Predict the structure.
Amino acid sequence: MNANRMQLSSKDILEKEFKTAIRGYHQEEVDEFLDTVIQDYEAFQQEIEKLKQENDRLRKQSDQTRTRTAAPNHQVNYDVIKRLSNLEKAVFGKKYADS
């Protein structure tokens, strides 16, 4: 959920005033319900923030892992090429090494 798309904050919910009518809702019941909504809303906001932080941490960890594994692959490739070259020299002899 994008923070820009959120229309209400817990403060907005808490400070919302409703007009009263003769046969309106019971004000204390509405207030108790809004208190519950505010608590849930704040819990969701905290969970979203926690998940964003964990997501950032995992992305950084993934980037570090990619950079660590990229460097050794070049060394392994060099070793394989060197071994292959030595093997070709052993199999084909001096004639192959001179060309």
